[in-house]
Every structure is written in C-alpha cells, then in structure tokens.
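Lay summary. Proteins are chains of building blocks that fold into shapes, and those shapes determine what they do. In this project we predict the shape from the chain. Here is one chain we studied, written as its sequence of building blocks.
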Amino acid sequence: MMRASGALILAAGLMAGAAGGYWAARPSPTVSASAAESPASDAGRIALYYRDPSGAPFWSGSPKKDANGRDYLPVFDDDKASFYPAEKKNAAAGPRRVLYYRNPMGLPDTSPVPKKDNMGMDYIAVYEGDEANDGKTVKISLDKIQRSGVRTEKAEERTVVQPVRAVGTVTFDERRLTVVTLRADGYIEDLFVNATGQFVRKGEPLFRLYSPDIQMAQADLIVSAGVRPGLSPDIGIQGTVQKLRNLGVPDARIEEVRTSKKNPRTIDWPSPATGTVIFKGVMNGQKARAGDELYRIADLSEMWLIAEVPESDLASIQVGTPVSVTVRAYPTAPISGRVAFIYPDIKPETRTARVRVELPNPDGRLKIDMYADAVFQTGGHSAPRVTVPTSAVIDSGTLQVVLISKGEGRFEPRTVKLGRRGNGYVEILSGVAKGEEVVTSATFLIDAESNLKAALQEFTRSEPPK
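And here is the predicted shape, written in a compact code that computers can read:
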C-alpha cells in the first residue's frame, strides 16, 4: 500500500509538472523555501510579489487566493536571486530593488511581477539605478551605443543658407535699350547699317539723311555767324545753334558748319549708343517722318533674368540675394548674379512673383528668351544662429525633438523649435544651447528607448509595484 501510495504521489507530481509548463518544470528552490518558512521568519521582509501555490505561471502584486482557496505564496529578494540564476551576479554586488519588468521586444508594456510575452520570452527586470534619476534622460549601455554607431556633434552658430529654386527667362536689360528716331522729316539716301543683329559702336554712321528743315537751320547758322556791329558773334548765333540741337544735329556737325561757313546737303546720322541692332524699321530711299522708330539698339553686355519664384518662397528673397543661374545651353557653366528688383505683383494663374536678376554677359553667351534655372542662396544676410545637423532632428510632424548627449550613455530628449534649413543644417530657435552635444546618427535607437522609458514611468506611476 505504501508503494502504491508513493507511485500515486509521483504520478501526481509529474502531472502537476506537465500542467505547470515551463515555469513548473524549472528548478524552483523558492517553492520549498517559501513553504517551509514560518510567518515569524517572514517578519521584516518585503515580498516582491505573490505566486500561485500550484506552480502555475500566475502572479499577483498583493496577497490573494487561487480558485481552490489557497493563499498565494510570497517571493522575497533572496528567493528571487535563487529563482532566477541569471540575476545572482547582481545580488552578489549588493541588494538591488526591482522597479518593474519590461517587455523584451521593447513594447510599452510593463509588469510589476515577472511574466512572459505571447512568444514565451521572459520580461526583463529593471532595477533601481538603471534608469536616470531626473526623470528626463534615458540611459543606454555603452556597448549598445558602440554597436549601433551612435555619433554626436556640438551645436554651433552658423549662417544657414537656404537654396530656393526657380526657373526664368533671359531678356534685355531695359536700361540699355536705345531707339533711333528723327525730329524732322527727311529722306534716307543711303544705309550703312542694313541688317538686324548688326553690331554698331557709338558715333558710327547708321544712314545718310537729307532733311530740308536741317538744311535751313544750317543756312541760318552761317548767316548768324557773320559779325554785326555792336554784337558779339556768340550772342548772334546762339538761337540758330539751339535750333540745330533741337533737331538732333550733333555738336560736331554744328561746329563744322560754323567754322567752314558751308552748308552740306546731307548728314551721316551717327549711332547714339554701342550695341546690337535688334530692330530695323528703315529702308534705303524711304521717307522718314519725325518720330518714326528707325532702329532699336541693345547693349547686350549685361542681361536680365526674370525668374518665377513661388509665392511661398518669396519672404526669404530680398534685393541683393546672390543667385546662381544655369542656362540650358551651358549646363556646366553657371553664372553668378544678384537680385536687383522684386516686381510688386503676383501672377494669379501660377501664384508666382517675378524676380529680376542682373547677369553679366561679356562674351554674348546669353541669348534672348533662353530658359534658365536659378538657385537663390537665401539667408546670407541673416545673423548666425545655433544650428544642428538635419539628421539630429526627429520630426513627428507635430513635434520636433533632438537628443542631447549627457555622457556615460545618458541622453535627454528635448523639444526644439526649428528655423530655416540649408546645406545639411537646421536653425534651432529654442531648445538647444551652443556647445551642447546632439546625437546625429542612430537616433531611432535612443528615441525608441526614450519612448519606452516614458511609457514605463507612466505605467509605474499609475500602478506602482508592491
């Protein structure tokens, strides 16, 4: 009978081990120790948690009974050190209080007592001292920092140059256009510049003109040049000289008539400017009326680029902003210029503003109506501000955060207000001071640890472990 009873007890023990699964099958010196201890021996000891008396994987943060009315068994600090062999080395260094247990996959899920996740993995114990005491920083082991490639850089004051891109069209410099007209009717007897696109210099003859009005004014000058008794020659011819000037006759021709006392029938009309003829409205032998546009001459040594800048970028552009212009015909030869004028209107169809850029054109490379790409280097006139690399900013869309390195594996997430961006850096309007170390790489790792810590703190505040 005793052998039968022993066999039955052994079978019951095996069945209980099978029903308990992993936790029941593990060596559990805590069970016998806790069961053997009397209430008197537990005096002055603080229970970490209470476990199911049958060995099933159920725990409680406070005393309770199971379905059969049996009390849950308390587990103390020294019991836990023997129950979890992996934590014996921590016990050897001195007693450490477990704050809580966190999810092994990094999820924001904690437990005041040991447990397993849905994959059978043990929750990880978090001890007092493992977390930062100020409630703001997160601590990461130095070997994890090294494996993850965490890099830092000091926040420094810089002038952030933010490029604004636009397209535009090359056109004439309107201040360098000259129109050739007559102030008296006349006849074109010969053309010296007879093709559009021809280059002329100031003073070179454009055409030969016969004008009756100019002929009569020259005759009056010759008559007035004679000396009259009691009158100075200069006073006598002042009116006739002014009349010739009003007709557009050059001073050199007036002086020639005055000194030679001869009245030439025709005059070679000189070019009033140096440049390229972009319009020719006269033919050999035609009658030219006063006010008719005969030629239009453009000085092409400087050109304008009229760029179409989006309305949203207009606030960062001002007069004097440097611009790099690249025409499609010469993609490897950008031209440097500056903003000269911002037109006071917005195109309603495209919501763009016209911005005028002055460009040098000494070799005549720029042609009228060329398309060009313009890059405005905005921000050059701004005062230096504290900046960090753009890779240091964690942007959730509604919140921007940078991670401040406190040394020894401690990092503080800090909310910042951002300014303009450019050349791989972003202005920090508030939140970071000059000289502080910010994390520039592997920010995702520290951010995940920080979010986990915040979730765990919130959990422990609402459900503190007993």
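What the prediction tells us: Residues 163-174+300-378 form a domain with the Elongation Factor Tu (Ef-tu); domain 3 fold (CATH 2.40.30.170).
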